[in-house]
Amino acid sequence: KDLQYLQHSELSEDVKRENSAFWGRFAFGERWAEKKARIGATSPVGSEEGWDLIGVIVKSNDDLRQEAFVMQLIGLCMEAFDMASLELWVHPYKILATGRTTGIIECVRNAMSLDSLKKRPGYGRSGLRGHLQRMAEFSPNPDEALRQAQQNFVR
Q1: Rounded Cα gap, residues 114 and 11, in angstroms
Q2: Angle at the Cα of 128 (from 63 to 114), degrees rounded to 5?
């Protein structure tokens, strides 16, 4: 990714602004649909009906039963928000406790953890706001892009 960034940073500002797909991938990684297509193309069963790709985290030495219960509550809250026509983005994901100290957690598609974001080059002391500002710079309307990114984060 660093090499891609360096190569892309040599382009003119106009070309950079037009290439929003590059900046989306640079900021947040490969899109899920792209990853699914890439892996499906090389899988011997990727073209079969019903084939899908999901991301999971396999945990050990961690009791996920409480997290699974809380995620069920979040699902109920989401239903209540929908019934009240509240524009809140809630995405409950699946958690399967497979034992007292083991489990599987579904990954949220097209998302990057805050921890992963903090490990990216250039994150530094400017934090999340600085990251969002850097990514918004390459939008046709940077102020609106930053406002929308902040809204999406807190919503």
Answers
A1: 29
A2: 20
Q: Where are the domains of the chain?
A: 13-29+112-155
Contacts of 27 (CB under 8 A, 6+ apart): 131, 135
Burial call 50-59: b when 16+ CB within 10 Å, e when fewer: eeeeeeeeeb
**Size (the chain), residues:** 155
Show Cβ contacts of residue 81 under 8 Å, excluding neighbours closer than 6 positions: 88, 90
Residues 73-89 have pLDDT tens digits of 999 999 999 999 998 88
Per-residue pLDDT of the chain (155 residues; tens, 9 = 90+): 444 544 555 555 555 555 656 656 665 667 888 889 999 999 999 999 999 999 999 999 999 999 999 999 999 999 999 999 998 888 899 999 999 999 999 998 877 778 888 887 777 778 888 888 887 887 788 899 889 888 877 77
Is 124 in a helix, a strand, or coil? coil
**Which residues on adjacent β-strands are paired with residue 96?**
104
CA–CA separation, 149 vs 143, rounded Å?
A: 10
Report the sign of the C-alpha dihedral through residues 97, 111, 33, 1, in that order. Answer: negative
